[in-house]
Automatic annotation (TrEMBL):
Protein name: Strictosidine synthase conserved region domain-containing protein
Domain of life: Eukaryota
Family: Belongs to the strictosidine synthase family.
Pfam families, alphabetized: SSL_N, Str_synth
UniProt cross-references to InterPro entries, sorted A to Z: 6-blade_b-propeller_TolB-like, Strictosidine_synth_cons-reg
MF (Gene Ontology): hydrolase activity
Coiled-coil zones: none
Keywords: Glycoprotein, Phosphoprotein
Recorded GO CC terms: endomembrane system
Amino acid sequence: MKDNAAGLLPFRIEPLTSSLICLVAIVMWCVVNSPIEPLPFTFPAPLPRLEGPLRENKALQAAVRLFEGRILGPESFAVDENGTIYTGTADGRILSIYRISTNKSSSSEEQFDKSPHLVVRTGLAHPHCGQPHMEEQCGRPKGMKFGPDGYLYVVDSYKGLIKVDVHKEKMETLVSSEVGCDGLPFRFLNSLDIAPDDGIYFTDSTFKWQRRDFRYAVLETRPDGRLLHYDSTTGVCRTVLSGLYLANGLTLSHDKTFILVNEMSVARIRRYFLSGKKKGTSDVFADNLPGFPDNIKPNSRGNYFVGMGSVRFKGSSPIGSFLDLIAPYPSLKKFIAAIMPLQAYNVFMPKHALAVEIDDSGIIVNSLHDPEAETIAAVSELFEFNNTLYIGHFQSSYLGVLHMNDLNEQRGACNET
């Protein structure tokens, strides 16, 4: 019996051995042929907890959805001297949104024009604009702000730094993505702000990946983003700070002495000093954030609103934060990138909308949640104007609007429970 068993043993093992060899070969092929070249990264521990200023609430559920199904990816906002709101969309349009009434104590759809008005397109008009494969042709306007000269300055992820005359509905390219800055073309322009001297600071998230492939940039965790400066008088562009991890939203501080830049892929905010003894240097302003920061905007309380593109906190997922788990392992990230379509990564993103309020010292002092992503699915930007918060996200099919009175009522209800 033992001899027979021994004789049969190789035949029982062979299928398993063959399967293992095939599996190893497939894994190795995927790793070798992966589209990304990631670096290891270890996030700070432990994960943030939803307590204190981060205590879970339903503040964002008090928001109103505008233009649902008629607007695609309104991510960032600007306001002109007349109070008209402007935004860029995923189909390459820059739109104006006129508020008919501002004398009510809360927001409703009736207070706004029925539809946004088209100002300009940054790229061509095509029936498939709005789909990722058409972004390079159609354009993708992102960060924007009005300058003292009355022009709207915009960074388009594909087209470059743009100046828009909103009255004549015409645009001019100041620096094209092909020309770029310091000999390096732009790949993924993201956000901007304008300094008192009219200089424009803006971010190029990565010199490798375009916006439509940003998930690859997140997986790679490579410090290949830049903070740039454009001199509006001389037309010269220069690199201010390099080595940033997916440089995303930015804002000047309230006193204009430093710039804050969101490093999205590593869940932190970097500070670059514009004056004082530390001028020209940078440090970490806020680390181990409860999400991956998208845009950052100043608010009326002397603080900053930071939208979290996705969340990472204790209990946000049964397995923990997906990106935290895989970040230290380049080969694992290469394998995942090789076998998963880009859109499939949304499966790992918890359904929890979050924005935080950070003070001038980098401390979180408040937070706004939609814990079920019921009204607001996710937050890229909170833009405050005239006692109203405009809530944008790069994938939303609506514009969120939240009056501060409604926000305070929602907070009061949460505190009573």
